[in-house]
Write a structure and sequence with these properties.
The complex is a heterodimer. Chain A is mainly α. In chain A, about 70% of the residues lie in helices and about 5% in strands. Chain A has a single domain, classed as ABC transporter involved in vitamin B12 uptake, BtuC, CATH 1.10.3470. In chain A, helix 5 crosses helix 6. Chain A starts with a helix and ends in a 14-residue tail after the last helix. Chain B is an alpha/beta fold. Chain B has 2 domains: about 210 residues, Response regulator (Rossmann fold); about 140 residues, Rossmann fold (3-Layer(aba) Sandwich), CATH 3.40.50.2300. Chain B has 13 helices and 14 strands. About 5% of the residues of chain B have low confidence. Classes of the chains: A mainly alpha, B alpha/beta. At the A-B interface, helix 1, helix 8, helix 9 and helix 10 of A face helix 1, strand 7, helix 8 and helix 9 of B.
Chain lengths: ~325, ~400
């Protein structure tokens, strides 16, 4: 039973790490422009396709050794995914959201849903048109990276799959990077200032446009890493993969306290672990995997009833 | 700022009207074609997923129907009439399927429809076509309730007279899989399904037959069709030490499930119905030893299917015929055979609709998959099934038999 507990904990943490990587994007953008960027799930999807495209451009290598894969292939794929995700995110910010900066809150929200549909359909219809690329109308097998794909680590009777470990490590490194970025860099501190009070921040000489661009870029970068992790974990990617992942990540961001970066990480991990645990440890009829989402959302409702600001949200929610 | 909103609204209205007129003009040439000219036009519709996860199967269905129609036109099967294909995408979604059915029903030239792939989509498509008196023949729906009503075991009652199918049902597939596994000495099985009517039906019929035959179901779990991560379910199932996992659902989930199972150390075969019997299953993670039942005998070994296979190859379709190609071909030919009777003295396509349904009941011919004929419920009289196994990265037939 204890083994099963640790196994499900690992399962939950790796799932949660994926949610958390995406959730950060919702939360940083919300913290600064109060926009729930529903297209963020698609930024995650586009990142995975970007990484896949990088692999295609490298000549579809399948026989690279472990060290070459880990030191060259994987970083290049991550980089490719990040470049694509960030580019797409900045384009949507520039052309879809910036013109609506001062419009009523509902306008950019609906626009975000529109952007989400647009990006899905764009990938579905046009990815296969790139010469030599596979059709994206159904799932595409994601390339395997030697040293990660299919490898497992055993601790006692607990099996940890390398892609799952990769996701957790990627989250840990990203969180550290975020902490330094937010607390130590000039742009990061400008972000905090803008989220606290955009008007005063502007009076202090902060270029708010630049800060918003940075927020979108940071979120998109992490989403791209999540996209690669998704591909490595599940072996294939498709144009609809961003929808449910985005929804769950948004839930995670709200659970942790939207606007709070640490909250997004905690919220993602909690959501993943609850889903995994509910599958196994709730006895009787309501305990099967069919009910895991019910329990996850029941938890969300409970948290919101007693702590409307989320697990780690600020005491006073001023603009939410 | 208000003016900006108005501008945006204006753009949206213009875009929407453009899109609408675009849709309208697509049906235009067909309507004018049927009015003039010596030969009259009748259309056979296809409702299947032409995009999305299941498009491999759906495109196979469309191409096979296309082939049957081309051949009928070449041989002049129905004197004075020209058949045309009207293919609609249902995206494997019930609501999209319903819209597609409504569109076909409003086209007066449509006399029959081949489809759908998914039982869940059929549930919303059949009533629409029934009220328009359009015959529907499915090559792939395996849910028993579609022909025999909710109490299909105890009190079968046919809900819609317009509905027929060329494939066998879950009431046959599940038990056949159970018999096969028991015959192989497998006593402990875990079941997983995707909560869609197809998967649920398969698993419930399988479980009944498997326990009746002396086997044990060690775990009964479900997944969401949109899920990508099955690790929690796998870990739970693993606790019961099953010797096989029976999956009710389709290949977009079954492939990754098989892959994740093996990665997690649960190295037992995944077995499923015809929904996982696709090359895509292997591409997405299905591994050697995984099993699938499919209706009929293996198409490429059947003497009767040779003309179909040659015709399909000669037609040069970009996509393979997949699991349901031969059944779709037979379904289209069943409609064409019924049309031979109903269109003979018909003034226009629409007035022949009801007669086509009546004629369907007495259709009987040798199709690609064997004898094609329907019983009083609209089900295929053939009950032949085959178990396939993934061998060296491709599906290979293992055992063909008839369910007793």
């Amino acid at each position: 039973m204890l083994d099963l507990f640790f196994q499900q904990l690992i399962n939950g943490l790796s799932l949660g790490a994926l949610y958390a990587l995406i959730a950060v994007g919702y939360t940083v953008v919300y913290g600064i422009v109060q926009l729930i960027n529903f297209a963020h799930g698609e930024i995650f999807m586009v990142g995975a396709f970007g990484a896949f495209a990088t692999w295609m451009l490298l000549g579809q290598p399948t026989d690279w050794g472990v060290s070459a894969s880990l030191l060259i292939l994987l970083p290049l794929m991550l980089l490719g995914g990040i470049v694509v995700s960030v580019t797409v995110a900045l384009l949507t910010e520039r052309f879809a959201y910036r013109p609506l900066r001062n419009a009523p809150r509902l306008a950019p929200l609906i626009t975000a849903i529109g952007v989400s549909v647009f990006l899905q359909e764009f990938v579905r219809l046009f990815y296969g048109r790139i010469p030599g690329f596979p059709d994206a109308k159904s799932a595409i097998p994601f390339p395997s990276v030697a040293g990660i794909s299919g490898e497992i680590v055993r601790i006692g009777s607990v099996t940890i799959q390398m892609p799952a470990l990769f996701t957790i490590v990627a989250l840990a490194i990203s969180t550290l990077f975020l902490w330094f970025f937010v607390n130590r860099s000039k742009t990061g501190r400008a972000m905090v200032a803008t989220s606290q009070d955009p008007d005063t921040a502007r009076l202090m000489g902060i270029n708010v446009d630049k800060v918003i661009v940075a927020a979108f870029a940071v979120g998109a970068g992490l989403a791209a890493i999540a996209g690669v992790a998704h591909g490595l974990n599940y072996g294939n990617i498709d144009f609809r993969m961003g929808f449910l992942a985005g929804l769950k990540a948004f839930t995670a961001a709200v659970l942790g306290g939207i606007g709070n970066i640490n909250g997004a990480v905690v919220g993602g991990l909690v959501l993943g672990v609850v889903e995994a645990m509910a599958t196994t440890f709730i006895p009787g009829q309501f305990g099967s995997s069919a009910w895991k989402d019910v329990w996850a959302f029941a938890l969300l409702i409970l948290v919101l009833v007693f702590r409307p600001q989320g697990l780690l949200g600020a005491k006073v929610v001023d603009r939410a | 700022m208000n003016t900006r909103l108005f501008k945006l609204a204006g753009v949206a209205v213009v875009a929407a009207s453009l899109a609408l007129t675009g849709c309208g003009s697509r049906t235009e040439p067909a309507a004018s074609g049927s009015a003039g000219g010596a030969t009259k036009v009748a259309k056979i519709g296809v409702i299947a997923p032409l995009s999305g996860d299941l498009s491999a199967l759906g495109l196979g269905i469309r191409n096979s129907v296309d082939l049957a129609i081309r051949q009928a036109n070449e041989s002049g099967a129905i004197p004075g009439w020209k058949l045309e294909l009207a293919a609609e995408d249902d995206e494997a979604k019930p609501d999209t399927g319903k819209n597609a059915a409504t569109k076909l029903a409003s086209d007066d030239a449509v006399v029959g429809v081949v489809g759908t792939l998914n039982s869940s989509v059929a549930q919303s498509v059949i009533p629409v076509l029934d009220s328009a008196k359009i015959v529907q023949v499915s090559p792939a729906n395996t849910n028993p309730t579609l022909t025999k009503g909710a109490d299909f075991l105890t009190a079968p009652k046919r809900p819609n007279a317009n509905y027929f199918r060329t494939c066998t049902t879950d009431a046959v597939q599940g038990p056949f899989a159970a018999q096969y596994l028991l015959g192989e000495g497998v006593k402990k099985v875990a079941t997983i399904h995707d909560k869609k009517s197809y998967g649920q039906g398969l698993v419930s019929e399988f479980s009944k037959a498997f326990t009746a035959g002396g086997g044990t179901i060690v775990a009964a779990e479900t997944i969401n069709p949109d899920d990508k991560n099955f690790s929690a379910v796998i870990s739970k199932v693993q606790g019961g030490a099953p010797e096989a996992v029976y999956y009710g659902g389709e290949y977009p989930q079954a492939g990754p499930l098989s892959k994740q199972m093996k990665a997690a150390g649960l190295k037992v075969p995944v077995m499923g119905g015809d929904g996982i019997f696709s090359g895509e299953f292997i591409k997405l993670g299905g591994t050697d030893g995984d099993l699938a039942t499919s209706v009929g005998a293996p198409v490429d070994t059947l003497e009767s299917a040779k003309p179909f296979l040659e015709g399909y190859k000669a037609a040069g379709f970009a996509e393979g015929y997949e699991a349901y190609g031969a059944y779709s071909y037979d379904a289209a030919n069943a409609i064409i055979n019924a049309l031979k009777v109903s269109l003979k003295d018909a003034a226009d396509a629409k007035s022949a609709r009801e007669a086509t349904i009546t004629a369907m009941a007495s259709v009987s011919f040798d199709g690609a998959t064997g004898k094609v004929a329907f019983d009083e419920f609209g089900d295929s009289v053939s009950r032949v099934l085959t178990v396939y196994a993934v061998t060296n990265g491709a599906w290979a037939a293992k055992k063909t038999g008839e369910l007793k």
